[in-house]
Amino acid sequence: MKVPFYDATREYALYKSEFDQAVSEVITSGAFILGKQVNDFEEAVCKYTGASYAVGIANGSDALVIASDILDFKNGAEILTPVFTFFASASCIARLGGKPVFCDIDEDTYCMDMRDAENRITNKTKGILPVHLFLQTADMIACMEIAEKHHLAVLEDAAEAFGMRTLYKGEHKYAGLIGDFGVFSFFPTKTLGGYGDGGMIVTNNEELYQKAKSYRVHGSTVRYHHDYIGYNSRLDTLQAAILNVKLYHIDTAIQKREKHAVQYRELLKDIAEIKLPVVKNNHKEVY
Ligand SMILES: Cc1ncc(COP(=O)(O)O)c(C=O)c1O
Fold first, then answer.
1. Alpha-carbon distances of 184 from 4, 90, 151, 201, 274, rounded to whole Å
2. What is the pLDDT of residues 78-116, one digit of tens each?
3. Dist CA 259 CA 127 (whole Å)
4. For 219-234, what is each residue's pLDDT tens digit?
5. Per-residue pLDDT for 6 more than 90?
6. Alpha-carbon dihedral of residues 179, 231, 187, 251, nearest 10 degrees?
7. pTM confidence score
8. Which residues' Cβ are closer than 6 Å to ligand 1?
């Protein structure tokens, strides 16, 4: 039997009436661009993660480019980012003329090795772009210490990391909410995945929020008045409607992943050639 790598149909069957109603509400309302569901979803993500502000973007890659643009990761600025990640964590820097400076990864977590990162700082370094991959966040305590010491901005690529938490200054903080900006992807296979492309920028900084909100509509806050050269990159209202349903059930989805992981761990633990994932102290992992 061929087992598909990813299959959205079982979850759809489980909550079919909720998904159908959510989609139908958008279509009957006729409000397709930045409709009410986008705002509802932004508020729901803020409530879930503790973010002060959230801005729905067309996809995670655009969210990274917009956040990099606002943080000035461009024009020759050197940005520290891990060598092991998806293309978008580096292309967002290179697209705007910045220089991705690749750092080694930790052999247990596969996230950025912060000691290696600090060794690569020069007088052109402007920021750090840590990526939270697979199961737990990068070491954000070390990341923020380095950022504060060297006056660097921090953009967290939390595309894969919705729901992961890490202990930071005595509190369990959600991935994406420790640096200046955090970015989520809602690509279908992600922990919180839509039925198409989707992304988001989160922040606790009001000024950065206002800019991100205007950058997604061509740098405009008042219609046809443009303060910046921005982008056309908004989370689609139909995707937001789907994602509202998915977010409502996210804890169950995360628990199911964990249950499967426990089974895999048990079944694979005695095979010497296989190294099982390591969860570092002070992390609440999401598979
Ligand atoms: C680490 C990482 N960053 C960025 C992205 C880009 O997200 P998207 O596919 O929504 O553009 C992805 C996922 O594809 C990713 O895994």
1. 24, 15, 24, 7, 30
2. 999 999 999 999 999 999 999 999 999 999 999 999 999
3. 37
4. 999 999 999 999 999 9
5. no
6. 50
7. 0.97
8. 59-61, 85-86, 88-89, 131, 157, 159-160, 185, 187, 197, 199
The residue to which tokens 């598909």 are assigned: 4
Distance of alpha carbon 102 from its chain centroid, rounded?
19
Inter-helix orientation angle 250-268/237-248, to 10°: 60
| Mean pLDDT for all residues in the chain | 97
CB 59 within 8 A of CB 216: no
pLDDT at 181 over 90: yes
What confidence score (pLDDT) does residue 48 get? 98
Instruction: Tell me the CA end-to-end span of the chain in Å, nearest whole number.
Output: 24
Cα 149 from Cα 143, distance rounded (Å): 10
Q: Of 68, 86, 91, which is best to mutate to test ligand 1, by the most ligand atoms within 8 angstroms of its C-beta?
A: 86
pLDDT surpasses 90 at 134? no
Distance CA(264)–CA(267), nearest Å, equals: 5
Q: In this structure, which residue's CA is closest to atom 10 in ligand 1?
A: 60
Under 8 Å between Cβ of 146 and 128: yes
8 Å CB contact between 131 and 89: yes
In ligand 1, which atom is closest to the CA atom of 61?
11
Q: CA distances (Å), 236 to each of 33, 39, 132, 173, 258, in order?
A: 7, 11, 25, 28, 30
Cα 41 from Cα 235, distance rounded (Å): 10
* pLDDT value at residue 264: 95
